[in-house]
Amino acid sequence: MDLVVGNADGKLRAFRNDGGTFTWLTGTANPFDGIVAPEAASPTFVDLDRDGDPDLVVGDRWGGLRVFRNDGHGIFTALTGSSQSLRRNPSRRQQRAGLRRF
Ligand SMILES: [Ca+2]
Fold first, then answer.
1. For residues 102 and 5, what is the distance between their CA atoms, to the nearest angstrom?
2. Are 12 and 35 within 8 A, CB to CB?
3. 3 Cβ partners below 8 Å, 6+ apart?
4. Gap from CA of 48 to ligand 1 centroid (Å)
5. How many angstroms does the Cα of residue 49 sit away from the middle of ligand 1?
6. Between vectors from CA 26 to CA 23 and to CA 29, what angle results, nearest 5°?
7. Which of 13-17, 23-27, 87-91 has the least mean pLDDT?
8. What distance in angstroms lies between residue 90's CA and the mean position of ligand 1's atoms?
């Protein structure tokens, strides 16, 4: 896959560059089929475990983050609980409360 775009409905669309023409990968051809953010998916790739394969981080409209490990063969597995090192940003209310403590 050469291009991944987040959609307003939370789904990820993948495209393969076929010599300058992008082909939309659908169904099982899309390695991200079934990965859905609550709303406004915002994907980015970073090698979180430093194994040389880009892992997937998907943000959403509400500040949530979901992390998926790339096994190097096009399979992305969701990391949950303590295996997910990223946490949601505090809400504005939590940020304001934190500022008052100082
Ligand atoms: Ca990796």
1. 41
2. yes
3. 14, 15, 17, 22
4. 5
5. 5
6. 90
7. 87-91
8. 26
Tally Cβ neighbours within 10 Å of residue 7. Answer: 14
CA 64 – ligand 1 centroid, Å: 20
pLDDT digits 0-9 by tens, 56-77: 999 999 999 999 999 999 899 9
Ligand 1 center from residue 56 Cα (angstroms) = 9
d(CA 46, ligand 1 centre) in Å: 7
| Centre of ligand 1 from the C-alpha of residue 57, in Å | 11
Percent of the chain with pLDDT over 90: 71
Token representation of residue 90? 């505090």
Query: What confidence tier does 101 reach under pLDDT thresholds 50, 70, 90?
Result: very low
pTM score, two decimals? Answer: 0.75
